[in-house]
Amino acid sequence: NVIYRADYQEPAFWIDTVDLCFDLDPAKTRVLNRMKLRRNPDVMPQPLRLDGEELNLARVLVNGQGTSFKMENNQLVLENLPDGFEPFDLEIFTTCAPAKNTKLSGLYVSNDSFFTQCEAEGFRRITYFLDRPDVMASYTVLLRADKKAYPVLLSNGNLVEQGDMDDGRHFAKWVDPFRKPSYLFALVAGQLVAREQRIKSRAGNEHLLQVYVRPGDLDKTEHAMNSLMASVAWDEARFGLTLDLERFMIVATSDFNMGAMENKGLNIFNTKYVLASQATATDTDFGNIESVVGHEYFHNWTGNRITCRDWFQLSLKEGLTVFRDQEFSMDLAGEASARAVKRIEDVRVLRTAQFPEDAGPMAHPVRPDQYMEINNFYTVTVYEKGAEVVRMMQTLVGRDGFASGMKLYFERHDGHAVTCDDFAQAIADANPESKLAQLLPQFKRWYSQAGTPRVKAVGHYDAASGIYNLTLTQSCPPTAGQEVKEPFVIPIGLGLLGADGAELSHGMHVLTEATETLTFPGLQAAPVPSILRGFSAPVILEYDYTDAELLTLLAHDTDPFNRWEAGQRLAVNRALGYIGQDGLAAGDIRLDAPYIEAMRTVLRDPKLDAAFKELALTLPAETYLGEQLDVVDPQRIHAVREAMREQLAGALYDDWQWAFETHKENGAYTPDSVSSGRRALTGLALTNLCLAARASGDAVWPGKALQRFKDASNMTDRFNALAALVTSGHELAGQALQRFHAMFKDEALVLDKWFALQAGAPDRGGNVLPAVKQLMKHPDFSLRNPNRARSVIFSYCSANPGGFHRHDAAGYVFWSERVIELDSINPQVAARLARALDRWKKLAEPMRGAAREAIARVAAKPDLSNDVREVVTRALAD
Ligand code: ARG
Ligand code: ZN
The Peptidase M1 alanyl aminopeptidase Ig-like fold domain covers which part of the protein (predicted)? Predict the structure, then answer.
């Protein structure tokens, strides 16, 4: 049951129109599906095979007549269809049970409302269909339901008719003016209310924007609406792409497998990415809402107007749309320094999540070659690395060149289902003189070769001639099925600094060979190289920087990304040194004065933004440190990082106090980048002050944290104060947690934070696992709600390495039980959790053996979903 990209064939039939009629009922929904089909003349005549899953089939009619059919593993097979290429009618009547649909794929019920999720292959759980993205049809949808229970009836496109029926039910008829693949179908029915906004596009067209939520949540929709309006304006201004619909709807649901879904004209969102008020959402939530609203909106062109030929091309829409949402957030952030902060955050995600994926058992190219379950490939590789590939294209053709490339892409492919090759070709063809055009076949290795490339840089300065040589060597480790890698096209942003920090030169080098040497004449002394500026390519840069060089870069580099990077390297070098020092107890770790002074200088620098300082003063993540090692003891990494953190807390005590006092007042709450940066730094300062107090036993700062927690006027400050108490393990944490729960017991998204904070707390003597088990017994816990399951189980298994990787294997036993338990409820969520042990082969004993055993226990279950089966099979393969 493996599917290969190389096996792609056009569909044997096209579906031109779909007329759907739903009688919505939670226990038994009736679906009448009337389609017009015709044979695809380019494909050999063959039976029609329609996908269907968990459906009850009641009737099949061809041109109004009964017909013979058979079922073959989840396909309805029709062999006796009319010959020739004339269109024919196919009518299929089925029922399904939305209330029992715990997989949240297809049509399901959440809080007494109906929702759909059809990407990637959920439409087949609603009706029999050619459920593949290259079959694009025109949809008409008639919804019928009880009027009292389901007053709002929504589907894609325009509402053309609505009215009451005799039996207390009502109906609504929707017509989508655009052809679309089945994965973009959506319907919503329930008791919902909408914030509405009428806007006028630059072209002068009127549009109605709506954000639908449950009645009590209307006051939390302003930010989502503002983000939507900003998205519409941005896509017009930056790419000339206008809203093509009279009505654009967003609907929020609290039961959702992923973040959100770009259904044509009817985006369905996880509440987490819609609802926000200053009292309930943090600055991070506000930022995420802006970027996810943008992301789904931008899909309207990159994904919906031009869609994917097959699911191997997923990055065609996802990589491009992530790139677009990243650019959107950067453009909204404003100044160069705020853009850099966003860039650093994005790179941090790439390095802590995508690099490990690319080095583990689920490694796959941006355009995968095979899969068992496509839902397993909605990955950081397809999304975030895919976005980096698009970003490199923009780097190679320039910002204007990229915009022309997009224009050509739409001229060529609007309304069609295409491939990653088609996209790259359009960008290159619009820029025939560019490096991208010259190097296109080689550049496209970014789509086909998995693994994170490494670039090793070695500098040599010759005093006699004044020449500096920089030799760059690229390599890429083998990944499953790809033993040997060919060289990539790697744009490398470069700068040379003098020892005093002055910039001597800068530019962009495009590395194409395995090894190249760059020559810089006329230098008075050995320069300090600033390499891979702005993180110009998704590679690992290896350069043996001395502390002195890193301190120069940290203090003077004009590239803010590499400034931050220099600080991270200083910390990584120290952490790896301590970790590798046999017999060194965490308590004996002493950070050196130059490092501490450098951090102090950054913290006190009047020219740096608070947001940047917060990033620079945060130590590299435990998982990132783990990736730098061949053999990993996550508890050791945790202990070392915690020790370093406590030292920085104590050594910079006065500076943290200063930072706290000078940034804590923000006036009226706004989630803009400047004031959220100030809150972030205040929060970090408070955590450090509480950590320092922990070491010294002083109670002043924990007391202040508790007070701030009580007095806070917004969730960011309140949550940061709570986190400072929990993170420092102070005894006041208990009462603060209790109070927090009482305050927000009716706010599901805030309770998620409450659960996540405890499940992700720094482990002290193995205390987190018992706490997690307790949390699962809490009346507010539910395994069925993905957000809640993630807030407890994922926060522990995936985001708390120090607590999870126990030497007694109890974390892994817990993990295997939860994977199995979740798999029978929701395979997509279970398969995500299954990936928490992706990197088990790196673990030190006894964890390695125990992890293997736990994975084998899951794999031994006979009736696993395809989703989990694929993950554990790959994990155990060698
Ligand atoms: N296309 C959606 C997005 O990126 C993600 C939906 C994925 N859903 C899934 N079940 N695999 O915005
Ligand atoms: Zn997307």
Answer: 451-544
